[in-house]
Amino acid sequence: MIDHSLVKRFRQEVGDRLAHQRRLDQANGLPTMTGEDERQFARALISQVLEEHARGEIGLGRTPPTVEEEEALAAGIHAALFGVGRLQPLLDDTQVENIDINGCDRVFVSYADGQELMHDPVADSDDELTELIQILAAYSGLSSRPFDTANPQLDLRLPDGSRLSAVMDVTVRPAVSIRRARLGKVFLSDLTGNGTISPDVARFLTAAVAARKNIMIAGSTNAGKTTLLRALANEIPPSERLITVERALELGLDQFPELHPNVVAFEQRLPNSEGQGEISMAELVRRSLRMNPSRVIVGEVLGDEIVTMLNAMTQGNDGSLSTIHANSSMEVFNRISTYALQAGERLPIDATHMLIAGAIDFVVFVEKRNDYHVGGTLRRYVSSIREVNGCDGRVLSSEVFAPGPDGAAVPHAPISCMEELAAHGYTPGGW
């Protein structure tokens, strides 16, 4: 067990010495340390502080920390400085799927095998938990995001790619949910290997991306929509210029220059305490069209940006990708219509359906199911793919892949753009 009061104390000492060194470097005209240089210097400071502590304990006639205890303290201090404090061990565990925190000592962890277990506290008090989130909000993303009484909601991307959502003051205790990005650099072959898609669906999606079809990925919360979006994006040739638009940076396509050397990542900016400075998702989508994109990728559609995005898809930016929350592939059209009604354009249903029909080529539905009859294994899989065929008062579509005997998508109906897909190597059932 780590003495977290010591970690907190030593973090402050190391942070103070690090800040002092920065000021000295600046006064002497020395270049600012890079992130990696700062981490290396912090490690040296941590060793120095722990050595001073050990000597102090011996001087007082007490037993100094063991080698193992010192290593644990060093890891804890480093995590507190550069990571996410006592959450770091959970984020380092590759089997952790989700972390739900209902106050500092009510921590529930979901694992890849479907288990959900209660975990040790991640802070000594709710105030300390709030302080940790505030520190993360200040340094994650492209701009500092406030988390306080005036701004009780927060969404951000952690350094490892995980998505964090937090609220305070609208709940009795601060509440935090972290959804892990367990598969960062992911390909369709990986999703075939873990059963998310069949080889036939993988070939179809590969051809659809190559044919520059506009694809909307739908599913419930935590179904794996973003993971599938990353895999589809990784089918896009490296020669193409990609622009991603997100509420909080999550996709991270720019982190893999060998796959995507030309990427611009846009992140929504929230208003300041005076209500000024906001840049909405809809504005960012409009801005992206002026940045010479080959494809525009909208991380998640949750509101009025849908109209701007659909217009973008019909203006020559073929091959766009996005995700949306929905309970079925068919329900996607109603969900889009609802969002469009909330937009400034106030599009009527008929106009929205015409816009959908002209913009979206395929809807891919990802399902999440806990198969209790096989030991509680959590399954994520593509169960349906719907092709948009036109509009006649409503969106006309056909389910070209439908759920098979085990729920996974299998070929079901003819594909109207089969010739285009065949030109990119797809034939149903094999090559």
From TrEMBL:
<protein>
    <submittedName>
        <fullName>CpaF family protein</fullName>
    </submittedName>
</protein>
<dbReference type="GO" id="GO:0016887">
    <property type="term" value="F:ATP hydrolysis activity"/>
</dbReference>
<comment type="similarity">
    <text>Belongs to the GSP E family.</text>
</comment>
<dbReference type="Pfam" id="PF00437">
    <property type="entry name" value="T2SSE"/>
</dbReference>
<feature type="domain" description="Bacterial type II secretion system protein E">
    <location>
        <begin position="87"/>
        <end position="355"/>
    </location>
</feature>
<dbReference type="InterPro" id="IPR027417">
    <property type="entry name" value="P-loop_NTPase"/>
</dbReference>
<dbReference type="InterPro" id="IPR050921">
    <property type="entry name" value="T4SS_GSP_E_ATPase"/>
</dbReference>
<dbReference type="InterPro" id="IPR001482">
    <property type="entry name" value="T2SS/T4SS_dom"/>
</dbReference>
